[in-house]
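Recall that a protein's primary structure is simply its ordered list of amino acids. Everything else, from secondary elements to tertiary packing, is in principle encoded there. The following example makes that idea concrete.
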Amino acid sequence: MIGVLLLGLMAIQAVVMALNIPNSHWILIIAAAGAVTICFVMLTVLLVLIERPLQELKETIARVRDGDLAGRVGFAKRSDDVGQLGRQFNEMIGQLAENRAEIERLHQREMARAEHLATLGELAAGLAHEIRNPLAGIAGVIEVMGKELPEHSSSRAVLPEVQGEIQHIQTILNDLLAYARPRPPAFHLADLNVTIEQAVFLARQQVRKRPIEITFEPQKNLPEVMHDPVQIQQVVLNLLINGIQAIPNQGKVEVTLRREGEFAVVRIADTGKGIARESLSKIFKPFFTTRKEGTGLGLPLAKVIVESHRGRIEVHSEPERGAQFDVFLPMARPAAAHAKA
């Protein structure tokens, strides 16, 4: 700006000298004074309209960076473009404050829920231990009674049913203990194909006398995945057994493995009767089951294990069209596991 004014004064001087105007020095003095005045006015305008709002904006941003979301800029009251910028900035800070308050509220709720679940877990584990001991005694007495009953006694007919119910209770208690006090994953690099193949082998033993096919095609190009093979095998086997039990007669359970970004994805899809829409939101809740032989803890325990691997389980199903479970496992070791190691 000053350069432009100097060039203007030089141009005026050149014109005055070319025209031989008398007392030309007064004209130059007046022109210089006018130029200085214009420069002063423009600097004042820039200071008031631009520089001060910028300085206020910088100071408010520094407060926000330090965590103070109560700061607002005062030039938002202006009706020009700078004022509009200020209003948008204040709205943004207000939205940040609301989001932080919501996050803090959700955090407090999750902390309370975690404490509640921890208490319930301790209670469940204690009850499970208290029940297991007398249950083992009952199982022993039933076995002795079975040996002492006459071979043709009518009471022998109910013994298998009683023993089956005792085994069912023991299974529930074992699942309850595993859910209430899950052990931390023992992470190490391993071939996920092998982990799945072991689960598929065990599942096939369940259907040797049934017309159900279980297929798995290994993904040879998949690198080793950081996981706990025992726990992930348990998850896959649980989902396979669920798929088998969902097939009333002839059918198929297909297991596939693929890489999707930073995740290895295990898909277990069956041709069974599917899951009712109203049940989809409940299947991962403890003790929810639609089967007589189910404990209602298999899927919640699988979800706990997968989440301890920093993964997730997704389910898609429609009645009479089968169900599909996708287990997402990070290819790399979870950060939390690094910290604990």
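Confidence is low (pLDDT under 50) at residues 336-341. The chain is about 60% helix and 15% strand.
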